[in-house]
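job 3f2a | input accepted
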Amino acid sequence: MGIDVEPCSRSVSPAVIELLAPLAERDALTAWTAYEAIAKADGRGIGLPIGHLTHIPGSARWRVTGGEEYAVVHRELMTDSLLAVAWNNETPPVLAIATVDGISQPSIP
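job 3f2a | predicted structure (109 res):
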């Protein structure tokens, strides 16, 4: 499992936005937090090239080139931050997340 949290006010540099362009259907911060959570779950951290990550359209799943598939759930936290949790099997981790809208349990859409 990998987790990333970024402030919603964080700006993503133009260079990173360009690298994230293949993930175009996602906004930059959502794509960045998904990348960081998956990179941590994968074990390579920022050594995982962004270009090796592909979003599977219409789902919360992402595929690493030559590797595994990960589910990613995003939630906005009460601290005005965006949380991404990534895992690589069909069963989501058991956790409760305190969000702006209350307590949330992750699920795979």
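job 3f2a | The radius of gyration is 13 Å.
job 3f2a | closed
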